[in-house]
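User: Predict the complex.
Assistant: Input components as received:
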Amino acid sequence: GSTLVVAEHEGGVIKPNSLSALAAATCLPDRDSSVSLLLAGSGPSLHQAASHAASCHPSISQVLVADSDKFKNPLAEPWAKLVHLVQQIGGYSHIISASNSFGKNVMPRVAALLDVSPITDVTAISDSHTFVRPIYAGNALCTVRYTGANPCILTVRSTSFPVPQKVDSKSNEASISQVDLSTFNEDLGKSTYISQTSQDDERPDLGNARVVVTGGRALKSAENFKLIENLSKKLAGAVGATRAAVDAGFVPNDLQVGQTGKIVAPELYMAFGVSGAIQHLAGMRDSKVIVAVNNDADAPIFQVADYGLVGDLFEVIPELLEKLPEKK
Amino acid sequence: MKIMVAIKRVVDYAVKIRVKPDKTGVVTENVKMSMNPFCEIALEEALRMRESGFASEVVAVTMGPSQSVDTLRTGLAMGADRGIHVEFASSLYPLSVAKILKKLVQIEKPHLLILGKQAIDDDCNQTGQMTAGLLNWPQGTFASKVVLDKEKQIATVDREVDDGIETVRLNLPAVITTDLRLNQPRYATLPNIMKAKSKPIKKFTPEELNVEIKSDMEIVQVTEPPKRKAGVILSSVDELIDKLKHEANVI
């Protein structure tokens, strides 16, 4: 079989989530499989990203570049048509993308155009057509077998497929070829990209951080939430939040951890004033070490915590800030 | 102008689910079932659009076994004008749901199709995108704000994406899928529950709609996730720091 990885790039490099999708592609047990990576967009950063892709991992045999303004923004309509076109040319057995907001938006639409069922949010690959994905907010794991025609379309959770180690493979650089867009006829204008309001870029990315410090409703205000931010800074970590904290306006939506927010699996997850609703646990239950601080000893979060502390977070956090060693 | 909303009956969000011992699925017998929370938000948004004069009719659609009608009645009690029930004995994969929705859209000709972004049972997050693809309609997924321009037939949608909020403009007709913060759904009041009993529900089967339910996927097994080993309750911040340093080695 041959696999197509639908990748995103930023600042001339492949995004970490897409490298996780590549890692998943290399998990497909097929000895003579080849991996092609699709990049799209326009301008010099696209071509920088293409050279980065060509030498970033030995498993990539080909980099396909779709150079057009139509792909400058991550709109589902042109992107789905593009992947459909590339599939018609390449006849891949698998198409893989990250299960992030881009992959979730685009890949099911691709699958519909190809008349196949996509398998989203894959956390393990058993064999070339058998996959594990969480259901019911991670309270059950479902093993599904894809029995349909090619391609088998997957989106994969980045926390389950670690980014492959940097390999110096200058010697076996993949070929870079342009996607022939002469037959690409997307009726433009049905959807238009207007803007993206990005949040604070200074913070480490929540999805990839080694430490995540999360606050819940008990923080009571945006002002108090600075305690969580200060602690995360001290630990060189990222800030997370529960749905309740986001709904209450303490922090923006992109910090929400849970079933419908971000899925994280850091080495250390510290939850302050988080009750531990199943929807929240779904987003962090795979963390290596979980710490919970809550004044309610019966809070469900303590059932998943490695270390629990029953107490007032407004006393515990300042004490932690004072006593934790400074991060180099 | 008409809005169609797709709603799904699922195990209630507050139920702690149990995996069946034979690993064929989760226990749904004698378990509280409710409308998928994201579908409630989708329906609420459609009702507000009707109340603001943008639309004149809201049609709620559901698929599944006969009990799905209960969920449809809840939708009618919330305020949908009428319902459509596509009866099918077993569960349907999103591709089949999308094909059925496409047929219903061709029959009803709504200007907007609104769905929840995902169902909290299978957590697929696929149906809206797939239906939009089959219809060749633009899609605004994971919506946290929708502004409609009736004159220009445009929907401006704020989308919750990984690094913030993305805004897209869609020419109608379009598909919108709803995220949590789009609105706060209303409760059905008792008088409205009574009124809903007489609202019309049209029934179809997939065959009548000429949709072939093909299955290109099978469930091999459903298992419980690995349990985390029991943790410990500590007595002080000093103890916590000591454990993190010397036992867990994470700081």
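Chain A has eight helices and 18 strands.
Let me know if you want any component modeled separately.
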